[in-house]
Amino acid sequence: MEQLTDTELFVALEGEGNSVAVLVKHLAGNMRSRWTDFLTSDGEKSNRDRDREFDFPQPVTRAELMETWETGWSTLFGALAPLSDKDLPTKVLILGEPHSVMQAINRQLAHYAHHVGQIVFLAKHLHAHDWKTLSVPRGKSSAFNRAVAEGKASQR
Prior knowledge:
By secondary structure, the protein is mainly α. The protein is flat, with a radius of gyration of 18 Å. It has a single domain (8-149), classed as dinb family like domain (Four Helix Bundle (Hemerythrin (Met), subunit A), Up-down Bundle). The longest helix is centred in the last third of the chain and has 26 residues, at 101-126. It has helices at 20-35, 62-80, 101-126, 141-149, and strands at 91-94, 97-100. The protein is built from four helices and two strands; from the N terminus they run H-H-E-E-H-H.
């Protein structure tokens, strides 16, 4: 998202497609719903209006969008931090269906990875003329692997 202009954050590739801003709004809404009172209430909160997450995006500024993004992730990490191994088999509800804590975590992280991949795809498409890769650049794997072996780069 950092590589996009403010305008590009709100561009969808086609009528039914989602912009980066819409995806951020959806992810944050999902995270708020799933991770608030994670162990004690259904992951689909009654005050969530999922369909509105795909409407014309609010927030409307980069700063508001980034605040929404950060709040969603903070909610997730705040719910995960106090968990321990003993919590993993505990059953939680998502849309009335029981999941172990581990199943719920895996379900949501797969969902988030899917949408983050969409954000990266959109950003790369919209900014292809000067895209800065998020991983090892094409044709540079050998050099990167040497740098990792020499302790000059990280595999992260």
